[in-house]
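Following the same procedure, sequence and fold were stored together, as reproduced here:

>
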Amino acid sequence: MLFGIFNDINDSKGRVKKTHTLRVRCGRRSFHLQKSRCSACAYRPAHKRDTIGSQKKTTTTDHMRYLYNVPRRFLANFKEGTKAPPRKKGVFKE
């Protein structure tokens, strides 16, 4: 029945190596053979698994090391590789 899919069998262990195969609907190798379920588009139920990816299109609450420096670099027109001019020593005035 599904012998053509399970042709990567390790003879010494008797274990099937391939757990996922190509899914035609989403075009990814994420269709689980034993579960008969695609982990990318959730093939089998009527709905598609598309809301999970669209919820994560914003900046996170992580460290965001790159985005921390962007406003400061924007003020300098994203100049790189230049050396800062030396600070002038002045007299403190009140």
In short: The chain is about 15% helix and 10% strand. The radius of gyration is 28 Å. The domain at 1-47 is CATH 2.20.25 (N-terminal domain of TfIIb).
